[in-house]
Amino acid sequence: MVVQSVEELRRRVQEGWRLARDRKGFKMRGPGGRWERVSRDLEVVAAELYEAQRSERGGRTRGCEGLLKEKERQCLEELDKCSNTYIPLALKSLRLIIELGWLAEGNVKGLPALPKEARDALTTYVMSKARRLLSEIVKALREYEGFNNNDLTEAIVHTEL
Prior knowledge:
By secondary structure, the protein is of the alpha+beta class. The protein has helices at about 5-15, 45-55, 65-80, 85-105, 115-145, 150-160; strands spanning about 1-5, 20, 25-30, 35-40.
């Protein structure tokens, strides 16, 4: 049998039926151990009731939400303090991507020019992804670490691989 109405769903929960979630949706187990499926139309209500039952069992208590928010804020603050350790790694990655671009263009002094096929493959397949990564790293350094264009350029120039 399938639970079809919100009233029936709420009544069964009050009677002690337990909600469970699986890959097909929600199902309920009665006091006698009998399982019944919950209609897909009732998934939103079933999800609310399921979370309420979990919080009653201690799966995730609602009284701790304030504590969880405080811990999340503390973790983010600690992460902000630690993010400075990633700046050298980000700068080295930027420098490597720039040198890869120079290699694709044939602007690396002291190295023989790449064969045309290798240069075309590098330009076509690698550099598009490298440019996207370059822009994401630059954006992150500007937004989160406060770099401006001049600081970033100077830092990249002085970065050694």
